[in-house]
């Protein structure tokens, strides 16, 4: 029996998954890869076992320790640890966060096998690559139509609509310091509207916000449950809520969609004794069967595929994604943006669990 240990940083809980039974016989090249590997990730906790089963089957000689937290907290952890981090690989973290790590010389060049299949917008612009994207996530507006009908309030169609007084206290959105979804939303407004107009917009929106959550998917779930009728949240989570039968309408604001890439990178370590296993992990992370898992979970993948979207998924999402989204600008200005955001709006953040 082979055991894998998963740590959840946020909850300080230890999860042990025992993997046993029949496994397919690995190839000689795969069976020769072995050792211990520490992976830092912001992938949703409930998805990790399904993803990792594929890696465990392919590389049974590699013992993987997963350290998981939300994007903002994981980014802060990595930056604080610096060259002393125990991470060998970062998996499924926002690309703008990886770029912030690169500014501290924490990433090492490595172009995974199959990286040529990733669309240019979703991988490092330099060669060899320092990061490679798995999927992209974008924000829209999840609206509980039944709750708004009770309040005799119209369904908003644009971000500008959300400033109207009738929505006061009805809106929830993610906190950008703890949620990658929150940061991509704020970054999207600042880039789409311009910095001055973007901050002015958020000043006005803040008056209508009920609370800022520490999860990017939570606003859509709260909208579906009727806790707050309007959630600025992940598009795909809103779609899932609708597919599950909630009275949710998924709005793609006319101004465009802010978006971010969920990506992977190799940590730059002076004495990396397990680089073969780390590179094997990064190769595995963009294989087509794993990409299918990302697609099933997020409704999007960074390579061209014929995977089938749910019927409720809006057909024009990729066309509405802000075309000039600059992840490098988002990384360079991250600390400044978060400091200003916290000073202006942090008082409405929900308590941390």
Question: Which labels suit this protein?
Answer:
2 domains; 353 residues; alpha/beta; D-Maltodextrin-Binding Protein, domain 2; 14 helices
What topology emerges from the helices and strands here?
Elements: E1 2-8, E2 13-19, H1 28-31, E3 35-41, H2 48-58, E4 62-68, H3 71-81, E5 89-94, H4 95-103, E6 107-108, E7 132-144, H5 145-150, E8 171-174, H6 180-193, H7 195-206, E9 209-213, H8 218-225, E10 230-234, H9 235-243, E11 248-251, E12 259-267, H10 275-284, H11 288-298, H12 317-320, H13 327-332, H14 334-345
Parallel strand pairs: 1-4, 3-4, 3-5, 8-9, 8-10
Antiparallel strand pairs: 1-2, 5-12, 6-12, 7-10, 7-11, 7-12
Helix pairs in contact: 3-4, 6-7
Signal peptide: 1-20
GO molecular function, one term: thiamine binding
InterPro entries: ABC_2-AEP-bd (IPR017663), Ferric-bd (IPR026045)
């Amino acid at each position: 029996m082979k055991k894998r240990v998963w740590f959840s940083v946020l909850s300080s809980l230890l999860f042990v998954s025992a993997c046993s039974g029949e496994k397919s016989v690995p190839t000689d090249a795969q069976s020769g890869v072995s050792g211990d590997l520490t992976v830092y990730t912001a992938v949703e906790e409930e998805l990790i076992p399904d993803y990792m089963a594929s890696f465990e089957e392919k590389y049974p000689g590699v013992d993987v320790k997963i350290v998981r937290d939300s994007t903002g907290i994981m980014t802060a952890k990595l930056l604080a640890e610096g060259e002393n981090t125990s991470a060998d690989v970062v998996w499924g973290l926002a690309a703008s966060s990886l770029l912030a790590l690169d500014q501290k010389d924490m990433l090492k060049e490595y172009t995974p096998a199959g990286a040529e299949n990733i669309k240019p917008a979703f991988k490092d612009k330099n060669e060899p690559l320092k990061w490679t994207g798995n999927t992209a996530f974008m924000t829209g507006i999840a609206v509980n139509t039944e709750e708004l009908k009770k309040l005799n309030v119209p369904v908003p169609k644009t971000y500008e609509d959300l400033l109207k007084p009738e929505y006061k206290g009805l809106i929830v959105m993610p906190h950008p310091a703890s949620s990658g979804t929150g940061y991509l939303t704020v970054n999207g407004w600042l880039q789409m509207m311009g910095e001055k107009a973007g901050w002015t917009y958020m000043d006005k929106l803040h008056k209508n916000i009920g609370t800022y959550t520490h999860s990017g998917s939570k606003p859509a779930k709260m909208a579906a449950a009727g806790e707050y009728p309007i959630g600025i949240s992940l598009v795909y989570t809103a779609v899932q809520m609708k597919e599950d039968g909630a009275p949710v309408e998924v709005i793609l604001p006319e101004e465009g969609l802010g978006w971010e890439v969920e990506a992977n990178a190799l940590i730059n370590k002076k004495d990396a004794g397990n680089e073969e296993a780390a590179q094997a992990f990064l190769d595995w992370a963009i294989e087509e069967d794993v990409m299918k898992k990302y697609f099933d979970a997020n409704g999007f993948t960074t390579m061209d595929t014929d995977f089938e979207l749910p019927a409720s998924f809006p057909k024009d999402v990729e066309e509405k994604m802000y075309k000039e989204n600059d992840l490098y600008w988002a990384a360079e200005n991250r600390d400044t943006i978060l400091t200003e955001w916290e000073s202006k709006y942090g008082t409405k953040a929900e308590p941390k669990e």
